[in-house]
Write a structure and sequence with these properties.
The complex is a heterodimer of chains A (about 500) and B (about 100). Chain A has about 500 residues and is an alpha/beta fold. Chain A is built from 16 helices and 11 strands. Chain B has a two-stranded antiparallel sheet with strand order 1-2. Chain B has a domain of about 35 residues.
């Protein structure tokens, strides 16, 4: 069935004329129409646009001008501005916002021939780990516990991006990762997801949450699919001052390098009290696979790991409070009228933002306010420097790290909602790499006792996504993960 | 450090978020819970550590001081809630 193909496989099939882009995209448009009412993975569907793009891809395939992603149907996280297509960031305040421009990352995917099925659901302004904070409703994880139909979360914030790929509505998708928002949903939905090094992908045209942490990345059902997508998305962009001017390597080729002779670090601090035994067991299995493939396993220490989350919950809200100041009801977005300008601002923001966003803006405002800046924000920036030093020291001794992606499998919708800190703990294994700006990838590696997917995380040196892909590919090959979600196209 | 209701109202005012009186107690509890949790950073020895401000360990680039964009008033105003000619419109600010 066309919806089960990998991107790499579909690209080859299109070139062999086994099927047309119109047929491939049509099958996915139908899957979105059939499954989205149940999963709510898309906020905005763009079937007419997708079919027009498919016809253009067929013409390009016929005349030999087709790009590497010609005719490949993708979901675009609704945090990437798309010219002429509503972009909400999962917030009421941008409910009517139609960008006049295209984000650099999505423009590069279009340049390479990709087809956009629509805008994927997410936590409001990417603030969340469950997709429960979206103003456009929660997303249901296509996976279910064995013998249960309780609706589970897909993780977040890129929950719609991950769910759409897992359910075979899209072949791949874009996400953004600020503290784990690609890796954790990839783990929860049984697919692969890469957050590259900070600076690898342009942030231009992506709705900003925490600018020193935000980084675009890709989801796919295989490591190689993620490599193919990232190769298109990455690259220098003069419009983003933190975009790094270095060549983009051939990531697909890097997937086949193997791990023989590599040193893989196991950070002691990621073995936490009360950690799920199944997660621990899978981690040991993963280390075994790498050892059998010729890697050397090395015990290492990242001593400031336990401070990663608390540091994150100062730095990210501080940056968010500043970034989200632009939503004032004057230049774009939904306005609430007031008796004067201040009243207009306050009513607009009270009505436009949800509870989690308000909480984070207020925490950020407080830690940046006079008298508290040094005690909170400046101290957090210093701890962040120590977290980076942990990684720099460890990467002098090892080539990559292997850890679990998340402490648990997907949880039920509504769980952890009354306790912000319990929700924040989802990101305990992903936040440190975000604070250090290093690349990380989640690969599906097995199922828990209830039949839910669990991912392993590979973390690499800055700008060494190639080694991350190589290690991830060995895990993927050894794990032979073939389980399927309960809800998917054709079922 | 623990926030009192007056401080919660002051932060909301700084953040330009209108709070209804009934929301103050709930937010006070939530914000104090989060601040109490991040208080753990006070046990880290940061003596002599330079703060890390950005995500990229790179020097910012210089570029020519030249106009590279502009002349797009209609596109920019297309999403405005209210406009007057080529300007954004807001309620009267100066009496």
């Amino acid at each position: 069935m066309l919806c089960d193909l990998s991107i790499v496989g579909a690209a080859a099939g299109l070139r062999r004329r086994d099927f047309s882009a119109r047929e491939l995209v049509g099958a996915h448009v139908d899957a979105v129409a059939a499954l989205n009412p149940r999963l709510n993975a898309f906020i905005t569907e763009t079937p007419e646009l997708a079919l027009r793009q498919a016809e253009a891809a067929d013409r390009a395939l016929a005349d030999g001008s087709a790009g590497p992603l010609a005719g490949i149907p993708l979901a675009i996280k609704d945090l990437f501005c798309t010219a002429g297509v509503r972009t909400t960031a999962g917030s009421r305040i941008l409910g009517n916002f139609v960008p006049p421009y295209e984000s650099t990352v999505s423009a590069q995917l279009l340049r390479d021939g990709a087809v956009f099925l629509g805008k994927a659901n997410l936590d409001e302004f990417a603030m969340g780990s469950s997709n429960m904070t979206s103003a456009y409703g929660s997303v249901q994880n296509p996976w279910q516990r064995r013998g249960s139909n309780v609706a589970l979360v897909p993780g977040g914030s890129s929950g719609g991006s991950a769910a759409s790929v897992a359910a075979r509505m899209a072949m791949g998708s874009t996400g953004t990762d600020t503290g784990g928002s690609i890796r954790q949903p990839a783990s929860f939905c049984g697919i692969a997801g890469i957050k590259p090094t900070y600076g690898r992908c342009s942030r231009w045209g992506i709705v900003a949450f925490a600018s020193s942490l935000d980084q675009a990345g890709a989801f796919g059902r295989s490591v190689a699919d993620c490599a193919l997508l990232l190769g298109s998305m990455a690259g220098f962009d003069p419009k983003d001052s933190t975009s790094v001017e270095r060549p983009v390597p051939d990531y697909v080729a890097a997937c086949r390098r193997g791990v023989r002779g590599l040193r893989i670090g196991v950070p002691a601090e990621y073995r936490m009290d009360g950690m799920n035994a199944e997660v621990e067991l899978l981690w040991q299995k993963g280390l075994g696979w790498l050892r059998e493939s010729g890697a050397e396993i090395v015990d290492v220490s990242l001593p400031h790991t336990k401070y990663g989350l608390a540091t994150y919950y100062i730095v990210a809200p501080a940056e968010a409070s500043s970034n989200l100041a632009r939503y004032d009801g004057v230049r774009f977005g939904v306005r609430q009228d007031g008796v004067d300008l201040i009243d207009l601002y306050e009513r607009t923001r009270a009505a436009g933002f949800g509870d989690e966003v308000k909480r984070r803006i207020m925490i950020g405002t407080y830690v940046l306010s006079a008298g508290y800046y040094d005690a909170y924000y400046l101290r957090a920036q210093k701890v962040r420097a120590l977290i980076l030093k942990d990684f720099t020291d460890v990467f002098a001794r090892v080539d990559a790290l292997l850890t679990p992606t998340a402490p648990t499998a997907a949880f039920a919708q509504g769980e952890k909602m009354d306790d912000p800190i319990a929700m924040y703990l989802n990101d305990v294994f992903t936040v440190p790499a975000s604070m250090a700006g290093v690349p990380g990838m989640s690969v599906p590696a097995g199922l828990d006792g209830q039949g839910l997917p669990l991912g392993l995380q590979v973390v690499g040196r800055p700008f060494d996504e190639e080694t991350v892909f190589a290690v991830s590919q060995v895990i993927e090959d050894a794990a032979g993960f073939s389980a399927l979600p309960a809800v998917r196209a054709g079922e | 450090m623990s926030l009192d209701p007056a401080t919660v109202r002051r932060i909301a005012r700084l953040a330009r978020i209108r709070l209804e009186e009934g929301e103050v107690a709930r937010l006070q509890g939530e914000l104090n819970g989060i601040l109490g949790w991040i208080e753990q950073l006070s046990e880290v020895d940061v003596e002599g550590v330079a703060p890390l401000t950005g995500g990229a360990q790179i020097a910012l680039r210089m570029r020519a001081d030249a106009v590279t964009d502009g002349g797009q008033a209609e596109k920019i105003l297309a999403n405005a809630p209210d406009r007057a000619g080529e300007f954004f419109a807001v309620p009267k600010v100066v009496e």
